[in-house]
TrEMBL record:
Record keywords: Kinase, Phosphoprotein, Transferase, Two-component regulatory system
A single GO cellular-component term on record: plasma membrane
Protein name: histidine kinase
Tagged with keyword Kinase: yes
UniProt-recorded Gene Ontology molecular function terms: phosphoprotein phosphatase activity; phosphorelay sensor kinase activity
Domain of life from the UniProt record: Bacteria
Amino acid sequence: MRQNFISLVSHEMRTPLVAAMQYLELMGGNIVGALNTEQTRIVNRMKSRLSDLLALIDRWLELARIEDHQVTDDFETFDFSPVVKEALEIIKPLADEKKIKIRDMSGDDVKLNGDRNMIKEIIVNLVSNGIKYNREGGEVTVQKKQESGFIVIDISDTGFGIPEEELGRIGKEFYRVKREGLAVGFGLGLAIVKKILDIHNGRLEIKSAVDQGSTFRMYLPISTAVIGKTAAASCNCSRESNKKGG
């Protein structure tokens, strides 16, 4: 039933919206005749609203897909640093547009076990939020450390911050922080992040203060295979040391 409904939304709603966007592109490009200033303004406004609606549908479908993806068939052991670089490359045009500086301080590589594309989606979502809810010329910083079998990733921004009373509602579907003059997103980005972290036995913590920015900290288990190798290597080193000492 659920899968049928998702297919219905994908085809019966998204397909005609894409067609409508294509017609607007033709009109905006003067393919069907020259537009005056007012007509051009109206067409551009329609394109903007249609893009918002398509983005909402895409986000909703992505969330539904992730909720149905409770198996770990796509899990693999992979290097984390290249995933960060790929995610930041995707989001770079948005950062450039707002003159936001992205600082990658994730440091040395570490291996994770999980769905590589989903982990990249997390980075894209969190860094994207740090850009959208930031001041022009601000910064977003990505940092990483290891802690008790987890890789801890901090994504911090110099943005508007989140009121304390709203922190508990962040990450709920269709909820977004209310700020006058700022209407970006549909509140699905963090819901997607939380769903992905649940699948990976991870978690998300948020620290924020109004006009002082926010830090989104996520915990992801380090690959058990890597932990095992590290422990084995440490054990072997100890044995060799004991032999030499004896």
